Amino acid sequence: MAVSAPRSKGWSTLSVALHWTIVLFILVQFIDHDWMEGMWRAARHGTPVDGSTQTGGWLHIIVGTLVLIAAIVRLWDRFTHGRPPYPENEPRWASLLAKITHVLIYAILILMPITGLIAWFLGVHEFGDIHGLMWTPLLILIVLHVVGAFAQHFWFKTGVLKRILVPGTV
Ligand code: HEM
Ligand code: HEM
């Protein structure tokens, strides 16, 4: 089935659950990335790390890897079952902006963990830099995405906010 094939019954429970799980994981990464940076600096300079830095650093690695898995499963679900159509009662430019934002968010959700894993496990420092460079664009995209979601609800009066909250909403 094509990527954009209409999913006539709205988002699946899996898709909705993964959306909000990813949101939660990104929030965790927002909080724990300082520990990861501390652990990374210590590993590079061969200096010791305290217990909380180590716990926070490993939390970053584990949760970041779970983001990769969750994004891939969500994409797999979307490729195999399609997604609900973009609303008809919103302007073309808004649908296009939403599509571009979604593609870029997915790209970063996949590339950030991969570059982080390469930096950490293979010790390639440049990948650590590339990893860090993607953070600000991700935050900007998320702000755009959330503003878009509220604009959909309050301005264009579409049902997309409801359908990402309640599985099966058309
Ligand atoms: C989507 C998931 C992830 C997000 C949003 C994320 C976010 C971040 C952020 C914001 C930083 C600080 C960057 C900076 O200020 O320069 C960071 C650093 C780092 N993260 Fe992640 N991370 C994710 C997944 C991972 C994974 C799976 C690993 C695997 C080991 C990892 C390894 C690292 C490393 C090694 C650093 C230090 C890089 C440096 O400071 O140059 N991250 N991460
Ligand atoms: C870390 C934060 C977030 C990330 C990474 C994220 C990511 C995504 C992604 C990748 C999609 C899938 C689009 C697709 O497969 O076509 C999506 C859909 C959606 N998100 Fe988010 N999201 C985040 C936060 C939020 C928040 C806070 C809201 C609500 C206020 C929201 C509302 C929506 C809505 C309404 C859709 C469905 C769009 C539609 O059915 O056309 N998202 N999100």
From TrEMBL:
- List keywords of the entry alphabetically: Cell membrane, Electron transport, Heme, Iron, Membrane, Metal-binding, Transmembrane, Transmembrane helix, Transport
Q: SUPFAM superfamilies under this entry?
A: Transmembrane di-heme cytochromes (SSF81342)
GO cellular component terms attached to this protein's record: plasma membrane
Domain of life of the native organism? Bacteria
- Report a single Gene Ontology molecular function: metal ion binding
Q: How does it sit in the membrane?
A: Multi-pass membrane protein
In this protein, which residues make up the domain named Cytochrome b561 bacterial/Ni-hydrogenase? 11-165
Instruction: Extract the InterPro entries matched here.
Output: Cyt_b561_bac/Ni-Hgenase (IPR011577), Cytochrome_b561_oxidase (IPR052168), Di-haem_cyt_TM (IPR016174)
Q: Where in the cell is it found?
A: Cell membrane
Q: Does the keyword Cell inner membrane apply?
A: no
Swiss-Prot/TrEMBL GO biological process terms: respiratory electron transport chain
Q: Which PANTHER family match?
A: CYTOCHROME B561 (PTHR30529), CYTOCHROME B561 HOMOLOG 2 (PTHR30529:SF1)
The entry assigns this protein to a family as follows: Belongs to the cytochrome b561 family.
Q: What is this protein called?
A: Cytochrome b/b6 domain-containing protein
Name its species: Jiella flava
